Amino acid sequence: QVQLVESGGGLVQPGGSLRLSCAASGSIFRISVMGWYRQAPGKQRELVATITNGGGTTNYADSVKGRFTISRDNTKNTAYLQMNSLKPEDTAVYYCNLRKTGVVSYDIWGQGTQVTVSS
Hints:
Mean pLDDT: 95
Strand content: over 45%
Helix content: under 10%
Structural class: mainly beta
Largest sheet: 7 strands, mixed
Number of strands: 11
Shape: globular
């Protein structure tokens, strides 16, 4: 029904910035909560940030507050994650998530994009 495609990952130096994009196909993007998750080697997947369907409410993990910003453009069916002041511990595979709630509820995941922060 809907597919998510992440882009923007890569290799950056500590203190650098990167912007991730998540493009969605389908008609449910506008009514869904979007989120970014990440998973580092040997660690559990963790939630990084979420944004409500209208973009009015955002939430962040304590580890990224003040450094990362989640946003969305409903006219483009795209969610973004702006990452500033990157640290080596931010290294992980980042996944885009779409959560649909209601009578029928489900999650849709992107394939993931690698972010590596290293000198």
